[in-house]
Amino acid sequence: MPKFLAFHSEPEKTWEELENAYKKLANETTARWVRTYYHKDSGRRICEWEAPSDESVIVVFKRMGITWDELIPVEEILPERWR
Known about the structure:
globular; about 35% strand; 2 helices; alpha+beta; Alpha-Beta Plaits
């Protein structure tokens, strides 16, 4: 399944608002939310998604009112490959 990283900058969002969104995203079926890296002080997040296409992720974002700065396709590289 293709992987994507979504970059979000929303310093105005409270933890409670994010938590409410995460509860819904955890059960999303159009695209699968894998994980989020969150910097509380700046409100910046990097979210990993698995989806058939970037459009699938965008559909989820639009349906939930989530803004994003950038959405890019990525490939995973693990250090085990060289061990």
